[in-house]
Structures are given as C-alpha cells and as structure tokens.
Amino acid sequence: MASVAENLARVRERIAVAAGRAGRDVGGVRLVAVSKTHPASAVREALAAGQREFGESRVQEALPKIAEAGDGPEWHFIGHLQTNKVRKAVGRFALFHGVDNEGLAAALNRVAGEFGMVARVLLEVNVSGEGTKFGFAPEGVEGVLEGLLQMPFLRVEGLMAMAPYSEDPESARPVFAGLRELRDRLAGATGAALPELSMGMSGDFEQGIAEGATIVRVGAAVFGERARGGGE
Ligand SMILES: *Cc1c(COP(=O)(O)O)cnc(C)c1O
After folding, report:
1. SS3 132
2. C-alpha distances in angstroms, 31 versus 107, 191, 220?
3. CA–centroid distance, residue 134 to ligand 1 (Å)
4. Does the residue 230 lie in any domain?
5. Ligand 1 nearest-atom number relative to CA 223
C-alpha cells in the first residue's frame, strides 16, 4: 500500500495537471485532506509531508483528533453540523463547508458573536436535485443569502456541492458548472464576493478543478479507502 506521503504527492500532481489543463494557476486550488475515520497519526503523517488543511465531518470524532494532532493543521468542517453541536465546533474549524439551513447559519452567527469571532461558511447547494437530501435548492439560495449577509458574525465565502455518485466522473461536470454559474449569479445579484467553490472529492476532483473549484475535499485518494459507511 502506498504511504500517505506518496498518495499526497500523486494527488498534488493530479491537481497541478488538472489546473494546467484548465489554464488555471495551481495556487488557486486548495487541497483539504479528508481525514474522517482515520487516526491522528495519519494526520501527522500528512502534516510531515507538507499537508496543512484537513477535513472532518463529525464533531465528536474530530475534537479528540484535533487535540491529539496538536498545532499545525487547519481544520475544515465538511459535514452536516447539527445545531446542537455548534457551540463545540465554533473556533475549532477554519471553515464550515456544509451549511445547508438557515437555523444552522443563525446558530453559527450567534455563537461566533458570543465568542468574539466570525464563523466563515460555505453554503451547500443541491445543484442536481438528486442523490442527496442535503443542500439549499438553487432557486431558494438567493433569498437565504440576502438574510445571511446581514448576520454580523457570519461570513459567507462561497458555495459547496457534491455530485451524485456515479461510475463516470465526467457526469459531475454539469453539477460543478452549475454551482459556478450559480455563484456568479449570486455574486452579481448581492454584491458579495463569494470567492470559494468547494467541489470535487477523490472520484471527481479533476472535474471540479476544470469547472473552477478553489477547494477540493479529498479523502480516500490521500488516506486510503475507508471502511464502508464511515463518516458521512
Ligand atoms: C467523505 C467526504 C469527502 C471525501 O470523500 P473521498 O471520496 O474519500 O475523497 C469529501 N466531501 C465530503 C462532504 C465528505 O463527506
């Protein structure tokens, strides 16, 4: 089995090739290594290989790992945060990718305000309308965004999407293109910059980059396959 360092080198190379093919600067694509279900020792191995940003999708799994991994990593929350976990999560994660309801956004704003911080978030959008029950409907997100932009301790930095599972990575392209077009439209309509597009996982990050991803969330291709059912 390849080491984490070897896997990382391969993923970084693929990111560079995909960026080059899209005529993009590779510096415009950040790799979040998704360490869910993997131990802190795997995180430390990746850190030693120069990886700094890590993604977790469950608060109760992430907090001990964050403590154990120590200084160095920047943590991203990529899952669906339950509102009752917000108080434990604010301050621990640099960016919340999967914000998919207004109640969660309001809770993040409220707790961040109490803590004297700003919660940085991406709104998850269900672009394809299939494959997942999560995410705002594309038609509804402009109205939601208008409200969130009024929240003083919340900063919406962009959008996130997952493509429905498919054997063919190219089938993700229209989903990712749709997310980029939606971002452009929302930025035009609201004046918010929305620079970040979090789209692409192990199976489709090259397609994400081709369509403008600024962040790809890659787990299995970095840390190896997970046991089935873990971490969602
Ligand atoms: C698990 C997960 C990933 C990483 O998936 P891989 O297929 O292992 O790369 C990315 N994004 C989210 C939201 C996830 O839950």
Report:
1. coil
2. 28, 27, 13
3. 14
4. no
5. 8
Pairing of strands 154-160, 74-77: unpaired
Residue with the two structure tokens 């059912």: 229
Query: Is residue 232 in a domain?
Result: no
What stretches of 141-207 adopt beta strand conformation (E)? 154-160, 196-198
In a domain, 21, yes or no: yes
Q: How many domains does the chain have?
A: 1
Ligand 1 contact, 78 CB (< 6 A): yes
Q: Write down the pTM of the prediction.
A: 0.96
Atom of ligand 1 nearest to the CA of 202: 9
Of all protein residues, the one whose alpha carbon is nearest to atom 7 of ligand 1 is 202
| CATH number, domain with residue 74 | 3.20.20.10
- Pocket-testing residue among 14, 53, 56, 57, ligand 1, by greatest number of atoms within 8 A of Cβ: 57
Position 79 in a domain: yes
For residue 149, what are the domain limits? 4-223
Encode the chain (232 residues) as per-residue pLDDT tens digits: 789 999 999 999 999 999 999 999 999 999 999 999 999 999 999 999 999 999 999 999 999 999 999 999 999 999 999 999 999 999 999 999 999 999 999 999 999 999 999 999 999 999 988 767 789 999 999 999 999 999 999 999 999 999 998 999 999 999 999 999 999 999 999 999 999 999 999 999 999 999 999 999 999 999 999 876 544 4
Atom of ligand 1 minimally distant from the CA of 79: 13
